[in-house]
Amino acid sequence: QMQLQESGPGLVKPSQTLSLTCTVSGDSITTAYYYWSWIRQPPGKGLEWIGYIGYSGSSYYSPILKSRTSIDRDTSKNRLTLQLTSVTPEDTAVYYCARVVGRSGEYDIWGQGTQVTVSS
Known about the structure:
- It is a single chain.
- The strands form 2 sheets. Strands 2, 4, 5, 6, 9, 10 and 11 form a 7-stranded mixed beta sheet that branches. The chain has a 4-stranded antiparallel beta sheet with strand order 1-3-8-7, with no helix packed on it.
- The protein contains no helices and 11 strands.
- The chain is globular and about 40 Å long.
- The termini are far apart.
- The chain is an all-beta fold and 120 residues long.
């Protein structure tokens, strides 16, 4: 059974870098044609797409967050990473990783999410 598990610090100070990990079990992150996405949901707001890294290692980011975002992967550990620099309280959200089926665009498997609060 495939599972995605997000992990990282729950509290980050303003101006620092937010770093999260998504550990994938049950399938390889290099399996074609899947993409691995990061999404977040600020309190009281809808889901916001952050970016993805594909099975080949290519990545693409939201234009809004692109200048502060980096998504990478460690294929030996079958996990993804998210780094968001220069955070502000507006980056407070529940952060999710999810698998995307390339052919359909369906987000078919989600992690449970991890709360990140930006506060001094």
